[in-house]
Design brief:
Residues 134-175 form the B box-type domain. Among the domains are: 3-79, Herpes Virus-1; 102-176, Classic Zinc Finger (Double Stranded RNA Binding Domain, 2-Layer Sandwich), CATH 3.30.160; 311-474, SPRY domain (Jelly Rolls, Sandwich), CATH 2.60.120.920. Strands 12-13-24-15-20-21-22 form a 7-stranded antiparallel sheet, with no helix packed on it. The chain has a 6-stranded antiparallel sheet with strand order 14-23-16-17-18-19, with no helix packed on it. The chain has a 3-stranded antiparallel sheet with strand order 2-1-5. The protein has 476 residues and is of the alpha+beta class. It has helices at residues 3-9, 33-43, 68-79, 113-119, 159-163, 175-254, 258-283, 288-295, and strands spanning 22-24, 30-32, 49-50, 57-58, 65-66, 102-104, 109-111, 127-129, 148-150, 155-157, 173-174, 318-320, 326-329, 347-354, 358-364, 371-377, 397-402, 406-410, 413-416, 425-431, 436-441, 447-453, 460-465, 471-474. It is elongated and about 135 Å long.
Length: 476
């Protein structure tokens, strides 16, 4: 392999320079470690990672394997002496071997720069790039330079072929003109092939997406079937118990013996014990929403906290409504003055902070295909460009979200959640002293989604992230 060809094989496709600390992906493509790490960091917010060369996707961040053989090849290439690319010498430099720079078709000679200047004054001589072989560049019949192209016969010809040879009278073209015309013909073909390749890529992606969707649907169906059979088993066990109790009751009615009366009293005592245990369990529940759901199935008795948005924290791509309850995306910057509280990312905090006590508020997310809401500490970084400042992507915030999937996130750890219906409104309950943050789906009946437990030590705020073409609203 020529030195230039080997040099091309040792270039990273991202930085276009020689590999530095080369690593490999699972698909087999290689990159500089720093280059691929930066590329994967940029893809993290989307939740899907892909190879920059072949675009093979992975839901998990791919592992990087050090390519020791490639690293050794690069090291040897850098330490080896340069190889002379040209071994063609000037035909006219008799006393010494001087490298040639150009060749002449008519003379079938190669020249250094000094002889080239004199040779360039010759009329009708064709100066070409340096070559060691002139075969194929001259007519095999007339030994003249091939300057024309005959479209009739599809052949490159010399002037004698055209004037007096087999191609006499044909409508011929200069080679450069014919070359440009052929390239013009090939361009639509190339574009069509590129379009077909892109369509094939899209079909592969759609098939993979369909496979993933079917796999997720099957898993959800399996979970539902398992739940149905579990519920059926519990109902059968309950029915069996009731039948057995009825048999016992009838037996007790038939027999008026003292032993039967004692047995009835013991059964009554057991029922009282169960009820006492259930009531004591309810009294030990620290989350009022869970207690009310268990007790009466209705959280409407909870008094809503008055939560408004703090415009001084809002990113300039967010529009805040006049009543300070809605946050919507805009592509036009709002040009608000910068300050220590304002976010660089598309986030906004509530004006009210929480340092103790219990709070409850509700958020309408029905106008957002993607949404990210939760609670964050006052010390959350606000001037960071990356997703490490997003709600839930650090240890200072807790979030419920729908991006690529539905789930909860804290300290950048994602927990997938399942809902039987689309979540359009969310109830949020914060118990600061108990260290509980609970999320509820506002439907009929109200459904508990997820609860975080933590030891809160700083001021907390209601936090919201706004995606493009989306709007969220704090409900009154």
């Amino acid at each position: 392999m020529a030195s230039a060809d080997l040099r091309d094989e040792l270039d990273c496709s991202i930085c276009l320079s020689l590999y530095t600390d080369p690593v490999s992906l699972r698909c087999g493509h290689n990159f500089c470690r720093s280059c691929i790490v930066s590329a994967l960091d940029a893809q993290e917010a989307a939740g899907v990672y892909s190879c920059p060369d072949c675009r093979e996707e992975s839901p998990q961040r791919p592992a990087l394997e050090k390519n020791r053989k490639l690293a050794n090849i690069v090291e040897r290439f850098l330490s080896s002496p340069p190889v002379m690319e040209s071994r063609i010498f000037c035909t006219y430099c008799i006393k010494s071997s001087v490298p040639a720079v150009k060749s002449c078709l008519q003379c079938e000679a190669s020249m250094c720069r000094e002889h080239l200047r004199a040779h360039s004054k010759s009329v009708d001589h064709s100066i070409i790039e340096l070559t060691v072989s002139f075969e194929g560049r001259k007519c095999s019949t007339h030994h003249e330079v091939l300057k024309f192209y005959c479209p009739v016969d599809g052949a490159c010809i010399c002037v004698s072929c055209w004037v007096a040879g087999d191609h006499k009278g044909h409508d011929v073209q200069l080679l450069d003109v014919a070359w440009e015309k052929e390239k013009e013909k090939m361009r639509p073909v190339i574009e069509k092939l590129k379009s077909e390749k892109e369509e094939a890529r899209r079909r592969v992606k759609n098939l993979k997406d369909h496979e993933t969707e079917q796999r997720e649907t099957s898993a959800a169906l399996a979970d539902r079937v398992s739940g149905l059979f579990t519920d059926l088993k519990e109902k059968l066990e309950g029915l069996e118990k009731r039948v057995q109790d009825e048999i016992t009751r009838q037996q007790d009615q038939v027999s008026l013996s003292v032993s039967d009366l004692v047995r009835q009293v013991e059964l009554h005592k057991d029922e009282l014990t169960k009820k006492i245990t259930q009531l004591e369990g309810l009294c030990n529940i620290s989350d009022p929403l869970t207690f009310l759901q268990e007790d009466c199935g209705d959280i409407t008795v909870m008094e809503k906290s008055d939560i408004l948005l703090d415009i001084d924290t809002a990113n300039n791509e967010i529009i805040i409504s006049e009543d300070l309850r809605s946050a919507s995306y805009t592509a036009t910057s709002q040009n608000r003055p910068d300050g220590p509280k304002r976010f660089t990312s598309r986030q906004v905090f509530s004006s009210r902070s929480f340092s103790s006590g219990r709070y409850y508020w509700e958020v309408d997310v029905s106008q957002a295909e993607k949404w990210l809401i939760g609670v964050a500490g006052e010390s959350l970084e606000r001037k960071c460009v990356g997703n490490e400042s997003f709600i839930g992507y650090n240890n200072k915030s807790w979030a419920l979200l729908v991006i690529d999937s539905f789930g909860a996130r804290h300290n950048n750890v994602f927990q997938r959640l399942v809902s039987d219906s689309p979540v359009e409104a969310v109830g949020i309950h914060l118990d600061y002293e108990a260290g509980r943050l609970s999320f509820y789906q506002l439907c009929d009946p109200i459904r508990h989604l997820h609860t975080f437990t933590a030891s809160f030590t700083e001021l907390l705020y209601a936090a919201f992230f706004v995606f493009p073409d989306s709007s969220i609203r704090i409900m009154k």
